[in-house]
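Objective 1b: paired records.
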Amino acid sequence: MLSIEMAPGIHWIGVNDRTTDLFEGMWPIQREGVSYNSYAIKDSKHVLVDLAKAFKTDEFIERVNEVFDVGSIDYIIINHTEPDHTGALPILCRLSPQARIKASAKAKEILEDFYGLGDRVDVVTDGEELDIGSRKLVFYSTPLLHWPDTIMTWDPKEGILFSCDAFGGYGALPGAIYDDTCEHLDFYREEALRYYANIVSLFSPVVTKSVERLLGLGLPLRMIAPSHGLVWRKDPLEIVRLYQQWAGLHGTAAEVGVTLLYASMYGNTERYMNAVSQGIAAEGVPVRIFDVARTHSSYILPSVLRYRGVLIGAPTYESGLFPTMVHQLDMIERKKIRNRLTGIFGSRLWSGGAQKEFAALAEGLKWNVVGTREFRGGHGDAFVADGFAFGKEFAQKVKTGG
């Protein structure tokens, strides 16, 4: 993509990545891709706001040169030091030896550790201004959103908030960079939620406080320009409201709905699961079904974050809970998604153990177990009818809150 002028003197100069398989080495983006959004401000001083991943450096430099000569950079603002935003930094510092880096104190430490560039960094503080000619840029400290180094940069002249990872999302950009020119906006909303669940949700209490503070500043937002995903300009506060909503889901404000996680060795638990899902649907409760042996947790976490009910279907395996289910629950524990209604069903033969292990895991998650079923085999109409009834009963409890 070519550079795009967002406002007089301000350009999007990002690059798309459709070849990386795993974001942060963990989260799948093979199908979706991701953008590394960077911004160039051409004023009396030449400024870059955030950069791109190292392997995209050549393409990134091409974008910079469309706005001003890459050797003429005065300031490089690093809102956040993760290498997907700073990988191009060492080469840029060689090409523009006069450029100073503006970043937080914690970011200075990290940039020294990553690249040996600590001596190039001018530490900025909360509310500090940078005069670049016809405008002043303002820095706001937003630690743990989502690293301790994070800041945001505000351009009062154009009403643009450069928010880095906050308010971002997965998904390579489809030629258009704005929410109001994107044909598949629902896709980018869902990918913003998946990004939030994967990357940000652990810090939901911080999100709530940071958003409240930003709103309290009364900034006249014309655009929110994150470092991944769409630039929000039609209604910039839409993504802010979504973040407030998603942060609330982390605790007790989850929506009525069920995430149904299952694994099955020979089909008995799966057969029961299908009946359970019909029972849930019969109560008019939304249900999303995931085979944990075949679905990455990246796609499961948004549903667990969103919905009040989490129902587990898994057989006993070697006197314990099915291992891939244990892995999924561990990922949920790492994100500290609490206060869910839950239940478990599954098959066993000569021994049990799955339900006992799950009970201990649910206690650690602070989930309320409101239903259990264990069976040997899985034949007959009565078996299917029981699954249907179990699903209906669980859905009723989800609707009433337990």
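Objective 1b, second protein:
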Amino acid sequence: MYIDIKMSKKGEIVIPAFVRKQFKLREGGSVRLDVERDSVRFVTPNKNVVAWMREYAKKHSRSTDQIISGDELYEEEFG
């Protein structure tokens, strides 16, 4: 899919809302630019696993120890 977007005088672009939602991009977050010879791609950066675990634990009212040691929690999330 291609989406044409305009760039401001400062070189800023707006990522459409449906794209931000799909890739869970939030204000203050970061995106990675993959610059090649004749193209530029936006790539979602690798998630910080520790930050993800803390967020998951808080969201599910569990300790990070439970997530680290609990295979069933991994299966529940990714299975």
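The first strand starts at residue 32 and ends at 36. The mean pLDDT is 78.
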